[in-house]
Amino acid sequence: MYRIKHVCISLLFATTLPTTVNAQTDATSNEPDITALFEKETARKIELEEKMDRVASRLEALEDRLDEIAADSAQAGKKAASAEKKIKKLKGKREYLRLKELVEKRDSLLAAVKAKTQVADKILCEIQALDKDLAASSERMEELETVKENVGKNVLADYGAYPHKPFSEMDLQELERIMTACSRYADNKDVKAFMEDVELTMENKRAYDNATDVLQNRFDIHAVNTAINRLKAMKGCNETQRAEIANVAEKLGQYEGCFNAVRDALKYFNENKRSGKGYTKFDWNIDRESEAMKKAKVAAEPIPYLKEAWKQFVKAMDQAPDVHSDIEQELLGK
């Protein structure tokens, strides 16, 4: 008897993911149509899987029923044949009542066989129809599998390059948007793997952004050490990204020394201010050419916060050399 249970099981385990992705990371105008098609095909996939499950169960039940009918028909056929033999023996003995009884029994058994045969024929027709329906469903599932593979390729084509950009050229919100867009196709193994890469990139991007934020704010040893540890924990980065990490880590490592160099210059400047002679632009022009000031300028250069703070300090001194500016107080921690 034809069995297809194993076929149905294998098909039911297949996953499909339809539609193609046409939207680029900077354009989302086509996404509503993509989403609608994806939802439609996904619903169709679920419908087909449920249908094949029902067909498989029905086929198994029908085949069992056919086995029962075949067994019953065989038994009825044997009894009818036995009755027929007895009828032939009784015809010459004029046992009319017994003969009549056997004839009726024979006819009843033959009628039962005929009825069961008709039922069996109907069941066979139903099996053939269901088998044909299942074949069509299986073909459709194969089509959806092809669509699923294409989705994976298109998603990677549209979004695949972005997580490999330098961190300085990335936007965290864009990475989040990519994750949202890809989540619609998460059943696809390639898309799922890509989403894991994007999630790791987001973690790395946050660590990188935190490190650059630390460099753009007043020196804090705890914040610097935390940022360095987060950079060390980053993984899955490409060569360009690793170079960026190394550059930022180097600046974080230099921050304390650079900060101290700037503060030493300011202390030197304040000592001259406290000389009691009054501090003029002439005095400032002399001090700004001192070795301490030159070292401070060089030290401030690689650190964004110090570089900007030094510019503000020099500008304030050019305007009012005898005044302790806000930026000077901030750098000295007062």
Characteristic key phrases:
78% helix, 334 residues, 11 helices, mainly alpha
Structure notes:
The protein has 334 residues and is mostly helical. It folds into two domains: 5-150; 189-332, no CATH class. Helix 5 (189-215) packs antiparallel against helix 6 (221-233) and helix 7 (239-273) runs antiparallel to helix 9. Residues 1-34 have low confidence and may be disordered. The radius of gyration is 43 Å and the shape is rod-shaped. The protein has helices at 5-12, 31-90, 96-159, 172-183, 189-215, 221-233, 239-273, 281-287, 291-300, 304-319, 326-332.
Count of discrete domains: 2
Percent strand equals under 5%
Biggest beta sheet attributes: none
H-E order: HHHHHHHHHHH
How many helices does DSSP assign?
11
Q: From the alpha carbons, calculate the radius of gyration and give it in angstroms.
A: 43 Å
Distance N to C terminus: 93 Å
Structural class: mainly alpha
Large-scale geometry? rod-shaped
Number of E-type strands: 0
Overall average pLDDT: 77
Low confidence ranges: 1-34
Topology:
Blueprint: H1 5-12, H2 31-90, H3 96-159, H4 172-183, H5 189-215, H6 221-233, H7 239-273, H8 281-287, H9 291-300, H10 304-319, H11 326-332
Task: Summarize this structure briefly.
This protein is 78% helix and 0% strand. It has eleven helices and no strands.
